[in-house]
């Protein structure tokens, strides 16, 4: 690392306290990401076909009993 990068890293550590090395340039890789191959990779969208057909249920469409509505004007 350059002197400027070292100064920035030192400043970040001072301001934030202890910062994980994986957050900083040249840090060690995160062991959780290394252990689980799905983190940080593209995954198939299983909800895609339902959304295209209009069959997907969204949170706003879930019926709830005794739900109150309000509007601020």
Biggest sheet character:
none
Low-confidence stretches: none
Average the pLDDT over all residues and give the rounded result: 76
**SS summary, helix count:** 3
Query: What multimeric state do the chains show?
Result: single chain
Domain unit count: 1
Distance between the termini: 55 Å
Class inferred from helices and paired strands: mainly alpha
Give the C-alpha Rg. 23 Å
Number of strands: 0
What's the shape?
elongated
Q: What sequence of helices (H) and strands (E) makes up the elements?
A: HHH
Portion of residues in helices? 25-40%
Strand portion, in percent? Answer: under 5%
Write a brief structural summary.
It contains three helices and no strands. The chain has 73 residues and is mainly α. The mean pLDDT is 76.
Provide a descriptive summary of the structure in words.
This protein is mainly alpha-helical. The protein has one domain (3-56). The protein has three helices and no strands. The chain has helices at residues 3-16, 31-35, 48-53.
Overview features:
73 residues, mainly alpha, 3 helices, 34% helix
